[in-house]
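Researcher: Structure for this, please.
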Amino acid sequence: MTCAHVVARARGRRRNEGALLRGTPLAEAERWLTERPEDLGTPEQQFIQASRTLRTRSIRRLRAVVAVLTLLVIVASSLGGVALWQRN
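Model: Predicted structure, token format:
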């Protein structure tokens, strides 16, 4: 399926984030954008950019969750260590 077909199908879904590209299809679209930008119209380029933006936002969200969980593990370990130290 070509990039234009994917964009046309997604356009019918009315800006639904679920219709944006992810994973391998996004990598393929980015390759098209780099290698053959003249074959992609403005709507296709905007669609690929929206997909990139979603990926960036998802990565930031995942990093924030990992940071919070890491902090919680450190705090829980520290409190456990203090509790054991006070017990002895």
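Researcher: Any notable elements?
Model: The chain has three helices and no strands. The mean pLDDT is 87.
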